[in-house]
Amino acid sequence: ISRRFPLAEIVICPTVVQGGEACEDIASSVKFLDTLGVDVIIVGRGGGSMEDLWAFNTMPVIQAVYDCNTPIISAVGHETDFTLCDFVADLRAPTPSAAAELAVPDINSELQIADGFYSSLLSLFKHKIETEEINLDRIVNRSPLSDVNEAFKARQEKLELLCDNLMLRFKAMIDDKENALKREADMLNAVNPLSVISRGFTLTSKDNKTVSSVKSLSVNDTVCTRFSDGKITATVCEVISNE
């Protein structure tokens, strides 16, 4: 999401996704997110056995997804996994990563569309001005009086000046909007954790929560460390604090 559309605000709702409490927890999270006024909800988890994914076949989850007023993308398991949640959601994605790409537009494509609109409007303005200039020339040429001819020429020059100023202001407005959007995207990319990782750092998490201190870890805890080209899962053998 941060790569395709850095301006998107992401709300993460930690939820139990397997086990006896999973179905009620998933249903409750869907209902909660539906009250926030978000644009889209992704209901997803990684792959697992049929038993691991079974919570997404239960009635509380199916009913919550069906009743949700916010569009929902179901992204449970791998591409070959199907649950009943897929059939009541607004859209099914083969994986959570694919769901993220479906949820947001590509900012580069949006900028290209904006440039296309600008070019079309510019062409429309030019065509309108050329048409009015032709009509004005016809009126001037039909006039037998030289003073009338001069008056029309003065008006024509004024019209051309006004149109040129309009074009410049319109282009400046579009350029300002594009530059502001690019600045926002650059600022968000600067604080994007994935950008930090690409510079040689790593990001460690436990239970899908970022680990910022060794105090939050214990021996035998399972952690996930993300690198720029992949991730590893490890077990804590020893905790050494600097304090």
Please outline what is shown here.
This protein has 7 helices and 7 strands, in the order H-E-H-E-H-E-H-H-H-H-E-E-E-E.
Structural features, described:
This protein is of the alpha/beta class. The chain folds into three domains: 22-103, no CATH class; 107-190; 195-235, no CATH class. Helices cover 50% and strands 12% of the residues. The chain is built from seven helices and seven strands, in the order H-E-H-E-H-E-H-H-H-H-E-E-E-E. The chain has helices at 22-34, 59-67, 84-88, 96-103, 107-142, 146-190, 193-198, and strands spanning 41-45, 72-76, 91-92, 203-206, 209-210, 222-227, 230-235. It has a four-stranded antiparallel beta sheet. A three-stranded parallel beta sheet has the order 1-2-3, with helices on both faces. Helix 5 (107-142) packs antiparallel against helix 6 (146-190). The longest helix has 45 residues, at 146-190. It starts with 21 loop residues before the first helix and ends in an 8-residue tail after the last strand. 13% of the residues are buried.
